[in-house]
Write a structure and sequence with these properties.
288 residues; 48% helix; binds zinc ion
Length: 288
């Protein structure tokens, strides 16, 4: 099945009170692990690509070529969207041209008027080309490709203003943070989330920084309208731990254990296990 945009899968998720996972990719192993897990669990999935990861993988065209090749050669039949994560205005345009099926325009660091203006323009391009588009209000805390955010809570009125521009899904800061959560983290602001949902109605809401948010908070967020949850760091930690274990056990020095297909296998399996755990928690299993 060819790439699809994220609109239908997220509309169904919002109506069905579950969430679709966005799992960020970094290379071939990541992409294959996520696609195979989605297929095995019959779950829709969104592959996230940050601008940094896009550059690392040699550019957006390489990413599109790799993903489209895998969809065909792995016989993937579940809905898959290829989504730019935290895109700049220029990055969004480049991904549209390269063949992504979905983009995020992160205009949260612009004054609201400029965020509105740029989002509007990208909404009309995406509409014309059949892509879905995510916008962000209120910066998400932590570091995302060098941009440090404070983890602020979005203004629900500003969320409504951006939602009304015709975006497909909306990321609202509700105290969430990218990367690992600090010991003294105050938790998600369900009050903010509830207020945003009241004003934005059917709009699927997006929760960034899914790594380390306790399961009960994830479930509560889904009950309050979150239909897309971004997972990135958790797969990286799982991959690194499994690879470390392999090397510390000296397995790379036994027989042909140095073969990258063997060396990267435990990390690959660890990503699959993490994605499975998340899809079960989010409730997207069997919803393809
Ligand atoms: Zn994010």
């Amino acid at each position: 099945m060819a790439l699809v945009n994220a609109k239908e899968m997220l509309t169904k998720a919002k109506e069905g009170h579950y969430a679709v996972g966005q799992f960020n990719i970094n290379n071939l192993e990541w992409t294959k692990a996520i696609l195979l897990t989605a297929q095995e669990l019959n779950s829709p999935v969104i592959l996230g690509v940050s601008e940094g990861a896009g550059k690392y993988m040699c550019g957006y065209k390489t990413v599109v070529g790799m993903v489209n090749g895998m969809l065909e050669e792995l016989n993937i039949t579940v809905p898959v969207a290829l989504h730019l994560d935290h895109g700049s205005y220029e990055g969004a345009k480049a991904c549209i041209a390269a063949g992504f099926s979905s983009i995020m325009f992160d205009g949260s660091h612009y004054p609201i008027e400029e965020n509105v203006e740029k989002t509007k323009e990208l909404v009309s391009i995406c509409e014309e080309k059949g892509l879905s588009i995510e916008a962000e209000v209120g910066s998400i805390g932590g570091e995302e490709d060098g941009v440090i955010g404070a983890g602020e809570c979005a203004d629900p009125q500003e969320c409504k203003m951006i939602a009304d521009l015709g975006v497909t899904m909306l990321a609202a800061g509700i105290g969430n943070i990218h990367g690992k959560y600090p010991e003294n983290w105050a938790g998600l602001s369900f009050e903010t989330l509830d207020a945003v949902q009241q004003l934005t109605g059917k709009m699927p809401l997006v929760l960034h920084g899914g790594t380390g948010i306790p399961a009960d908070m994830i479930k509560k967020a889904i009950s309050l309208g979150v239909s897309k949850i971004n997972v990135n760091t958790e797969c990286q930690l799982a991959f690194a731990a499994a690879t470390r274990e392999y090397i510390e056990a000296g397995k790379d020095q036994q027989g042909k254990g140095f073969d990258p297909r063997k060396l990267l296998a435990p990390g690959f399996e660890a990503i699959k296990a993490t994605v499975k755990e998340k899809m079960e928690l989010f409730g997207s299993v069997g919803k393809a």
